[in-house]
């Protein structure tokens, strides 16, 4: 009986996630950027533009002005001190850029898709600070399960009933995006 209830619970969770994601629709034109300057943004670009052929612009250091004419903002979140240094940024500058970008997207009615594909390795205080900026403003979140063990994404998304697609592996993130992206 317990096993049956557990399976039923998993089925219900999957159906609920699918129903929630069915209400969220993203479309081109769009732009892919980074919050934290980790190399994960390059992987997201390949996944969305090469595999899914979405044709989104790619600007890891996107600014509010880059949002003109866009309908979707994809934010790959995960901090890298090496990536920040290479971009000539420190954490304060990156947090300010990310905050301004998210505010501009919301003001312009641009949908925000947040992706965290770096798993547990891309979590920690610096990443968490950026996650707390973008996740509450997202319209949909795709996260690799290993990077959401503490359910931070779910907690932040709950305030606005934002759907969170938790995938087992980075390779599965593309399917979660394809389910909500109108082509």
Overall pLDDT score: 86
Helix coverage percent: 40-55%
Which strand order does the major sheet show? 3-2-4-5-6-7
How would a textbook summarize the main sheet?
A: 6 strands, parallel
Radius of gyration over all CA atoms, rounded: 16 Å
Q: What's the level 1 CATH class?
A: Alpha Beta
The oligomeric status of these chains comes to single chain
What are the low-pLDDT stretches, counting only 5+ consecutive residues below 50? 1-22
N/C terminus separation: 43 Å
Overview of this protein structure:
- With 183 residues, this protein is α/β, with parallel strands linked by helices.
- The protein has a single domain (2-182), classed as Rossmann fold.
- Helices cover 44% and strands 18% of the residues.
- It is globular.
Keywords:
disordered N terminus; 18% strand; alpha/beta; 8 strands; single chain; 183 residues; Rossmann fold; 6-stranded parallel β-sheet; 7 helices
